[in-house]
Amino acid sequence: MELKNFTEDKNIIEEVAKGSIAEELEIEPGDILLSINDISVKDIIDYKYLVSDDYVVVSIEKKCGDIWEFEIEKDFDEDLGLVFTNPLIDKAKSCRNKCIFCFIDQLPPNMRETLYFKDDDSRLSFLQGNFITLTNMSDEEIDRIIRYRLSPINVSVHTTNPELRIKMLNNKNAGRIYEILKRFKDANLEVNCQIVLVPGVNDGKELERTLEDLSKLYPTVESVAVVPIGITKYREKLQKVEPYNKESANELLDFIFNKQNYFLKELGTRFVFASDEFFAMTHTELPKSNDYEGFPQLENGVGLMKSFEDEILTELKKIKTPINNNKRYILATGTLAYDFIVKMKDKILEKIHGIELTVIPIVNRFFGETITVAGLVTGQDLVAQLSSYDNIDGIIIPRSMMKRDEEIFLDNLTIEDVSKALNIPVISSEVEGKSLIDIIKN
Ligand code: SF4
């Protein structure tokens, strides 16, 4: 994820929402929030917690230096309408681990600086759903999560075996994860967990133990996602680890299906879910939508393909009579999702006639061929591998190939750069059925 502007120490107000309480009180951009109820506001979590009341006392320093104090009566959850220059108010916390599977440690040199930032911040977990390890938190900070009821919180567990976790994260503070999660359970918080699986390290008996431990914390721990380690070609100086292959991924899926059956009986939920990569790698049929139980870990790549398929089928159902479109498009994806996208293409062709859709799996030469997901395909790989195509009306790529807030690939090429180099329009589609079908229909 991208982070920027974490440089200001003061809570400078950047914007005041139209029609808000703050506007009515003549609070202006450039003013500074000093305190709420006499408590200084450390970050956005403090702010959100402190304003959630039907009576608040807000202290503001005006641009001219005057201090204004307001007593405000409002609805409990009504916001004041303030937007701050820095979204977290203070600096985002970086991690103190050196995980054996860390993707950031396996990045090539000379990428944009923000990509090397290792965040591990509970506020980002709460605000944006980032996964955190809880290894850089003091007891006071854990207390704050509990006191403010910051929930749901996404936790990277990997293993509940303290010695193994210390080894995997290369951090002596990593061993107390279960103790902290038990505190969250006592406080009735909601937690989603992930396990990055490294073959021969935290799978097998270790995974069995971790799932058994975490299941004891249900329903505080609502779900556990199991995702495979990603290995790039840039890890010569790092510990040797093995990637998943078809055989080990099949074994893992069998294990997860067995555990799901067990947990269904014991807890009434499948509780643990394998990420889409395991299904794609082994060409295993995707579970039914209901088996994802509301898709609790979609952002983590668990059930993303199934939910995308559902959306595409729903959109196609809306087309009562087949429509014609004589365009020629390329659907560019990572090698992992190739079979799946071909299947979707066949469904689309049943309802949209005349169109030519060619699915091209882009081999990841930038990070190495073991990286197969579409989200890590770069602009230069698109250019190199699509340059022989002509008479194409457009190349459709998933939006996940680009930065969250800008149309820029991981290698800093923009969508225009790629379009110009190929002399073909490049169109990004959100990873949702409606977006893709709308592009193809038009
Ligand atoms: S927690 Fe581990 S995987 Fe995440 S950024 Fe830090 S070192 Fe990398």
TrEMBL record:
Residues 12-53 form the PDZ domain. Gene3D superfamilies: 2.30.42.10, Aldolase class I (3.20.20.70). Residues 74-224 form the Putative radical SAM N-terminal domain. InterPro entries: Aldolase_TIM, DUF512, PDZ_6, PDZ_sf, Put_radical_SAM-like_N, rSAM_sf. Coiled coil: none annotated. It holds the Pfam family PDZ_6. Residues 227-428 form the DUF512 domain. This is Putative radical SAM enzyme, TIGR03279 family. It comes from Tissierella praeacuta DSM 18095.
